[in-house]
Amino acid sequence: MPDSIVKETIREVEPLRVDDTVAGAAMKLIELRLPGLPAVDSKGRFAGIFGEREFLVALFPGYMNELSSTAMIKRSIDHTIDRREECATESIEKYLTTDHVLVEDDYSDTHLAELFLHHRVLVIPIATKGKVHAVVTRADYFAALATRFTAQAGQNP
């Protein structure tokens, strides 16, 4: 691995599978305290990311993307859950963010920055020869980068 500012923030993970359920994947995110996880297909290839945003897409009706405001919808969250509870057993595959954001172990910190800036992901999967084994979160990347920046700029309190 290169000399990376985020190497100590890398989190080893077991990726989700595309046939995992929405409910199971959501619980795994909570358990691991991660905003997202990579998902792999039946051959172990990176298929996309399932995270907080993808869960919200699964739970809330598709027409919400078309509305400029939902202030006029006064239903409780329980009503929404009742109407969409079948999504709990749906496969995560159709909800994945499928942008190719996977990096190999020889990534650079600048490459991570570019991916976080240009893609709507909160995690970037890290792979060895295409096999996903870890993630770096945007929050951890920010903390490592900001710490290094303020130390070098002489701005540490």
What do you see in this structure?
The chain has 157 residues and is an alpha/beta fold. It has one domain (7-152): CBS-domain (Roll), CATH 3.10.580. The chain has five helices and seven strands, in the order ββαββααβαββα. α1 links the parallel β2 and β3 (36-40). It is globular and about 55 Å long. 23% of the residues are buried.
Mean pLDDT, nearest integer? Answer: 87
Number of helical segments with 4 or more residues: 5
The residue fraction in helices comes out at 25-40%
- Specify the CATH architecture: Roll
Distance between the termini: 31 Å
Subunit organisation of the chains: single chain
Low-confidence stretches: none
Strand order of the largest sheet: 1-7-6-5
Radius of gyration: 18 Å
- Overall, the morphology is globular
Within the CATH hierarchy, at the fold level, what is the topology?
Answer: CBS-domain
The CATH homologous superfamily name equals CBS-domain
CATH class: Alpha Beta
Can you give keywords for this protein?
157 residues, alpha/beta, CBS-domain, four-stranded mixed β-sheet, three-stranded mixed β-sheet, 5 helices, 19% strand
Provide a concise account of the structure shown.
The chain contains five helices and seven strands, in the order ββαββααβαββα. It has 157 residues and is α/β, with parallel strands linked by helices. The mean pLDDT is 87.
Detail the topology: elements first, then pairings.
Blueprint lengths: L10 E2 L3 E2 L4 H11 L3 E5 L5 E6 H8 L17 H8 L18 E2 L4 H10 L4 E6 L2 E7 H15 L5
